[in-house]
Amino acid sequence: RSELHLRSILATVPDAMIVIDERGVILSFSSAAERLFGYSEAEVVGANVDILMPPSDAARHDRYIAHYRETGERRIIGIGRIVVGQRRDGTEFPMKLSVGEANSDGHRIFTGFIHDLTEQQHAELRLKELQ
Ligand code: HEM
Question: What is the ipTM of this complex?
Fold first, then answer.
């Protein structure tokens, strides 16, 4: 029942929500995440979250998570950061990433909320052109 409840929430939250395990493996991928990145949930569940970012960060993301597990030092969790995401077709876009930590059946999981900043960036560029 709670699984169904979670599914219905994931289907309606406007921002993309992605849940990963402590090795960075995708456990769930919301409908908004499917639209934003161009992958279906079935395609990405079981894959590393690093498929959603450009090569520079993708090559380091496992280390980022390992560093946090080893030191407890938070660099994004509870802080948030503007980073660059990469869609299935290879195009990149600016996004606000917020990461939270939770516990599921004794396992540590991370929840990522992603807000697409493409429109905001376009608006800023138009504003600059007017100045
Ligand atoms: C850490 C980038 C998506 C979970 C980091 C860091 C960067 C980064 C740069 C480390 C910062 C540092 O050490 O200074 C990205 C990019 C993403 C992305 C570009 C684009 C898709 C996600 C998602 C999740 C996630 C969707 C969770 C569902 C984490 C965790 C850490 C981390 C748990 C370590 C904890 C922390 O630094 O606070 N990521 N990330 N990331 N990321 Fe990601």
Answer: 0.97
